[in-house]
From TrEMBL, chain A:
Sequence similarity: Belongs to the UreF family.
Protein name, as recorded: Urease accessory protein F
The entry's keywords: Chaperone, Nickel insertion
Pfam families: UreF
The organism's taxonomic lineage, starting at the top: Eukaryota, Sar, Stramenopiles, Bigyra, Labyrinthulomycetes
Chain coiled-coil ranges: none
Molecular function, one GO term: nickel cation binding
UniProtKB/TrEMBL annotation, chain B:
Protein keywords: Chaperone
UniProt keyword Ribonucleoprotein, yes or no: no
Entry keyword Phosphoprotein: no
GO MF assignments: nickel cation binding
Top-level taxon of origin: Eukaryota
Family membership: Belongs to the UreD family.
Protein name: Urease accessory protein D
Pfam families: UreD (PF01774)
Amino acid sequence: MGGVDAECMAWTIIDSGLPTGGFAHSLGLEAAAASGHVLGRKGEGVRAAPGGARGHCEAATWAATEARPDAVASTRDAPMDLTTYVDAQISSLAALELPFVFEAHASTDIDAWKRLDALLQAQLVSNPIARRASATQGAAFLRVAATGLASNTDMLARIEAMRTAVSKGEAAGLLAPVFGQVLAMLGVDARKAQKMYLFIALRDMLSAAKRLALIGPMAAVRVQSNLSARVESLAARYQDRPVSDAHQTFMLGDILHSTHDNLFRRLFLS
Amino acid sequence: MGEQVELDGRLAVEYVGNVSEVTSRYARYPLRFMFLPCQGDLGAAWVFTITYGGGFVSGDKVAFSTSVGPDATCVLTTQASTKSYKKKSEHATAYQETRNTISTGGLLILAPDAVACFTNSRFRQLQRFHLEAGASLVFVDWVTCGRAHEFWDMDLYSNRTEIFLDGTPILVEDMRLEAGVANQMGKVSVFATVVIVGARALSALKPPAPMADVEEATQVVVATAELPGGVGFVTRLAGVGVEQITRILAKMLDPLNKDLGGNPYRSQ
């Protein structure tokens, strides 16, 4: 496939209209906000969420504390602001999952893909919410690839073989290894695929933040454009690494994320 | 992964004549072991690991192996927190590696005090467990933000855990905290991970209940996940204060008090 086609393909894949279900996930933001550990940036307002999930009142209390000039002295007394949370979560995602996108992109062998899938499953054992979200989106991405993106019968056969492996329980179909495989088939180069992976996660988190009323739509654009530079630097730092180096960096975020199903009321699947 | 490090210590615990005995031991500077044989109803072997200075100065490397034989019971713990001291030179990183094997019917309780990350310290750890089918493990791993006036101000805390059951990886965790993470910690000053595997551990121990109300949940976050195939569970805790987390750990291990003759998280 020629370079121009791959470029257009990349645009198609980062389009938020691609039906992979990313909009249904907040990457732990909903659980973190409900626990009172995250609030919107000062001046951007923390409003009660639609439906008033409990815990948002807690965030509002902390926001009020933060507004007191004498109360900002130490990071220990204030929860994280939204940008800090999103940045930390994207960084951790880059450190953990880019190696899986990278290695899956490098090999067309289905058994190699299954091994990567199993290893990522082991690394997500303590966060079943993240594992479930990844498997759901991986399956949706494979479906889109089969019905909407596959450009020849060879690619279609390979994608169908992956889908069969998932339905037989031979693989979970986690998103990062699926993404790497499919983007390689579509001729998108590995570095671009890794950057796209982070960009999609950033976009989905900020979309979730808007719907949780943690940030307004204009402010979200500003945060996204600011953090897009971070996506560049994170991709540069974590791209092309082996999966033996895959690790996490945001301990609190990962633990909060894994409590998602305990939320009394929730808007997102994860 | 891990480096090709020479072992500084070796421990073997076996079930001999109704009690668990340390049948092989070796330790060299800076590592030492202390033993309390034949504790509790099970006649468990208690082993305390001690490093000179109570912790790691930059560049220290300590590696040791533990093997728990069929039906044996071993409690491996420490006498005080493991301090990760300030680095002496720019990239001198302290390193600890443990390799643990547990045979069918054996139970290892690895329940140390927390690692305390002092300002500007660099610490890396690899803890690897190989369980035969039917082996049991209680593994507690925790880290604190440093001394009283310090808050996640270390240079590096890198901690990798790999648990294999019958050759299959059932849990891999790799967490790396670097300089500048303090603003991602909210008010949390301690993190703990507890992994419970196998029938002997599962029959006694239950995960702690999630914090019921919003006020409590801002002090301690509790998250439990089942291990693949229902062979056990992993509980992760994030806490504002060390005392609360110590209490939760002590309570989790209480059901084994009589069998083991004590609780690593209660003062004797």
